Amino acid sequence: MRLTICSLSFSVLLFHLFPSKVTADDFPPIVQSDRGMVVCVNPEASDAGLAILKSGGNAVDAAIAVAFALAVTFPEAGNIGGGGFMMVWPGNSAGSNDPKNAQPVCIEYRETCPAAVGRDSFIKEFRQEGHHTVGVPGTVRGLALAHEKYGKLPWKNLIAPAIQLAREGFPVDAVLAAGLNRLNQQTQAFPEFRRVYGKANQVPWKEGDLLVQPDLAATLTAIATDGPDAFYTGAIAQKLVAEMQAGGGYISSEDLANYRANIRQPVHTTYRNHDVYAPPPPSAGGTQLIECLNILEQYDLSKSGPKSSRTAHLLAEAMRRAGADRVRHQGDPAFTSVPLQLTTKEHAKRVSQSLRMDQATRSEELAPDLKLSDEPPSTTHFSVVDGNGMAVANTYTLQNSYGSRVVVRGAGFLLNNEMTDFNWRPGVTSRDGRVGTEPNVMAPGKRMVSSQCPTFVARDGKLRLVTGSPGGRTIPSTVLCVVVNVIDFGMSVRDAVDAPRWHHQWFPDRLQFERLGDPAYATLMNELRQMQHEFGNEVKQLGDGYRRQGDAHSILIENGKTFGASDWRRTRGKAAGW
User: Fold this and answer.
1) In this structure, which of 306, 326, 361, 392 has its CB flanked by the most CB atoms within 10 Å?
2) pLDDT in tens, 71-91
3) What is the rounded distance in angstroms from the CA atom of residue 166 to the CA atom of residue 174?
């Protein structure tokens, strides 16, 4: 049976606001296919990936096509001006039975700090947008490295759908129209943004309007024709550097020319007879996920069930401990030594010794070595599996929604504001969540810590689950919830995606729950409060709806059949089966 799937998800900052009165009728159906499937936040990008599969491309080819298409149709997070992580499960694509060929790898293309920036450059800076917040982009180099190692179709073929979408335009949906209208009111300081993403005379966008991007079409054509060098050393690089110089940014021609993507070995653990693979540092998300699973494996979650206070308590305590270890240890491995024991069973047992089943741990107790003070981020994920068993789980980002708000003049693409993921104020780690620990302070050429966590779950050497999520610091928590729902509670992929999600990140010392304020969960909330868990106000009832965590479009392979579930937390997602 020929099997191909692609899925994508997106979240702005930590939580989405979904329309009120969500019912089961709003949940997209599970889509099953035996030849190919694309599940994506944007229909045009789904169709682009599916077209590549139908033309003989493999999983990596389809992923590249989706990534470039999203740079056109999903400017909130789809990008060529950002960076991310691509997990690749080669399967038997190399035409060999050698087990080494089946080992997953991580193609890391995280942004880097420009050479002109030092550890204290932002210590008095508070602006989260603008030219100064742009890190050296990695997306184009990362996609090109994936194509070089695994691609099947010609590079230019994979970018062709995106070029067509940019040149001919595509109809905006209600969410994109609302986002562009809001941003155009807030971006007076960024005239190129308003020119590219605004209508004539600043007439508001409405659903169905056609968004045409000729500058971006020309940029993508250059990348298709001349390869990644067009972006890093050619005419596009010149425009990017000119934009930096005009706006007070830091990126130089040398920064772009020196950028390299990396192939890294994923972090790995076993969890209840499953193998779990996730991205390594500079992603902290993968290590957090692995540490959480190692802690939870010591307890029988299936006995207490998914809706019990015991399960919620254990999830919170695992997340809390992994969050503390992230702050203490995680950074770019080229600049800091990240302890290997963080992903070991022995470490999980050691940090679990302070875990009490009847009481929440105070977060301060987990890191007495960190001095605390009281001083008071958008991403998208997609996944692919092809007929040869190759799989891709890719997460990439501009950081905040629409990144830095800087559009490169004459080139038509947005730049990230990824410098905000560094620790701006060394030594200042606060109870409200500000982090100033040494492993993630700025340094020339350094890669900022990420929460991205594209994930594979396999059993007996066969791929079972492909998942991931956007959502900033909530990403590993969202992925953890999906994995636990599938493995511990035997949920279908539809139920695993639909279930309410939990999050704890050490500080702020509070547990977040999607359905906080929902009367249906009042008893559960009271039980957790009796265990001294505290809840914040940022996850609260708004009208008849609730804030949402992540957007985990996921794929489950069971008994030779493949099921895709798009996440209802964001509208207009599409599961397109072949």
Assistant:
1) 392
2) 999 999 999 999 999 999 998
3) 19
The dihedral built from the CA positions of residue 110, 498, 60 and 159, taken in this order, carries a sign that is: negative
- Provide CB contacts within 8 A for 229, sequence distance 6+: none
Could you identify the residue written with the tokens 């509670």?
Answer: 489
What gap in Å lies between CA 382 and CA 469, rounded to an integer? 9
User: What DSSP string describes 111-161?
Assistant: -B--TT--TTTTTT----SSGGGPPBP-HHHHHHHHHHHH--S-HHHHHHH
Given a contact cutoff of 8 angstroms between Cβ atoms, the answer to whether 509 and 432 are in contact is no
User: Picking from 39-48, 177-186, 229-238, which range would have the lowest pLDDT averaged per residue?
Assistant: 39-48
pLDDT of residue 20: 41
Distance CA 380, CA 395 (A): 6
Q: Kindly report the number of other CB atoms within 10 A of residue 365's CB atom.
A: 10
Which residue, 128, 45, 148, is CA-closest to 88? 148
Instruction: Give the Cα separation of 507 and 6 in Å (integer).
Output: 35
- pLDDT at 322 (0 to 100): 97
Is residue 552 a contact partner of residue 469, using CB atoms and an 8 Å limit? yes
Query: pLDDT value at position 485?
Result: 98
| pLDDT tens by residue, 332-357 | 999 999 999 999 999 999 999 999 99
* Cis amide prior to 282 (ω within 30 degrees): yes
Confidence of residue 42 (pLDDT cuts 50, 70, 90): confident
Helices (DSSP H) in 233-284: which residue ranges? 235-247, 253-258
* Residue 136: strand pairing partners: 112
30, amino acid identity: I
Give start and end residues of each alpha helix (H) in 353-446. Answer: none
Q: Contact at 8 Å (CB) between 279 and 106?
A: yes
Phi first, then psi: what are they for 131, rounded to 5°?
-60, -35
DSSP result, 352-373: HTT--SSSPPPGGGG-TTS-EE
379 carries an active-site annotation: yes
The DSSP element (H or E) to which 541 belongs, if any, is: strand 541-542
pLDDT digits (tens, 9 = 90+) for 168-185: 999 999 989 999 999 988
Type of residue at 177: A
Provide the greatest CA pair distance for the chain: 63
- Helix axis angle for 475-487 and 309-329, nearest 10°, is 140
pLDDT at 501 over 80: yes
CB contact at 8 A, 363 and 320: yes
If one counts every other C-beta atom within 10 angstroms of the C-beta of residue 213, the result is: 23
Which of the following is catalytic: 379, 380, 397, 474? 379
Distances (CA, A) of 47 to 54, 277, 497, 576: 10, 28, 23, 7
Q: Are 297 and 272 in contact (CB under 8 A)?
A: yes
DSSP letter at 364? G
Confidence class for position 575, pLDDT limits 50, 70, 90: low
Report how far residue 327's alpha carbon sits from residue 330's, in angstroms, rounded to the nearest whole number: 6
Give the DSSP H or E segment for 67: helix 59-73
- Residue 132, amino acid: H
Between the two ends of the chain, the Cα-to-Cα distance in Å is 13
Question: Environment class of residue 56 by beta-carbon count within 10 Å: exposed (0-12), middle (13-18) or buried (19+)?
Answer: exposed
What is the torsional sign of CA 72, 74, 80, 81?
Answer: positive
